[in-house]
Here is the input.
Amino acid sequence: MITLKQFGSKITSLDLESIDSELQQASSLIEKRNGAGNDFVGWLDYASKLPESELDDIIATAQRLRRDYDTLVCVGIGGSYLGGRCVIEAINGLFPADDFKIVYLGDTLSAPYTTQLLKWLANRNYAVNVISKSGTTTEPAVAFRLLKEDIEQRWGKAELKDRIVATTDRAKGALKSEADAVGYKSFVIPDDIGGRFSVITPVGLLPLACANIDIKAFMKGVADGERDYGSPDWHENLAYRYGATRYLLETKVGYASEMFVTYEPQDQMIGEWLKQLFGESLGKDGKGLFPTSCVFTTDLHSMGQFIQQGTNCLFETIIKEQNIPADQDVVIKEDAADLDHLNYLAGKKLSYINDKAFEAVLSAHTDGQIDANVIELPKMDAYNLGNLFYFFFRACAFSGYLLGINPFDQPGVEKYKHNMFVLLGKPGVK
Ligand code: PA5
Here is the structure.
């Protein structure tokens, strides 16, 4: 289970009891599943209901892909790729020793990126996991077509069936019909779980399993989250307390933005995942905190000055692992010459120095104008990330109901997708 601590004069003097009835109401909408968008709350108990056989099927597919190929290309955008990539990088790091590589396409329309990746793939024996709930999103659809053409040219049409795994809707969309017609191995994205909540479904699980991440532990973390953050009483529910805090920081204190902060470059995607979860869920009807993210200490040297003393528009939510494992650490050695004057750090671990930076920044920021949540995970592993994700799901749904909006739709995104179809002349779209 995670811990949540709060620092700063405004956040620590918030009076949650004063909005008790609003908090009870939001909790009840989740509990009774009768709030706006209630046909998309399947994530509430998906993990605890998931049959073990589904996980075994995903693991068996991942093992086949790892055995027969040396690379997996994950094709998806938004909720169809961010969560998986976030967990893979946070656990395996940015330079994994694994010979089996995982790369991403379909999350951009960038011609140079696509060209460079296709060129790199020319020396790889790759498989593809195409992930799209609607099965019609332009970015992944275009990338998928390019990859199919490449597979056909290099290995022949018959190979498509073995090299491609589709993760999509159980019945609708172009991808589903194609998967049925060609016979791709397929996994289902449940009807009642939207993209940004779908990392706990085959959307995230197959890429994770391909990265040798223990998806049973991940799902146990999610399932335990149902218990850890499932109390309908907001006093006892950490996710609801965090949700209530961010609601008051927006509506009473007047902050415009929540900045998610991590201290490890490999955790950068946690910030990206959170930006999508909160941005797409809560940014509607002229409401919602603008979610942004930084990686410290790197960004202290670009954004630190603004955060400390610029427009007082944001609070921080810091996500940290309690202890960096010894095999991921480095010790600073004594140097007889000491030309760099760093001998005062000799014998210290780099993680210790990073921790001191964290403490120094926290006190500098919260002694000044900033308020901060500090969320700590015992360990950055599959179990704890699953647990953390469930915490944020609950907090996000709760925040949405407090704001009086539907946290589960994305009308703005649908509008851009539609406009693009019109501009590109997609048949049947006006
Ligand atoms: O959270 C969401 O619903 C979106 O970010 C979608 O995941 C994203 O737009 C991709 O959609 P699809 O999976 O239908 O291709």
Observations:
- The pocket of 5-phosphoarabinonic acid is lined by residues 77-80, 132-134, 137, 140, 194-196, 280, 410, 413 (CB under 6 Å).
- The longest helix spans residues 382-403.
- DSSP finds 16 helices and ten strands in the chain.
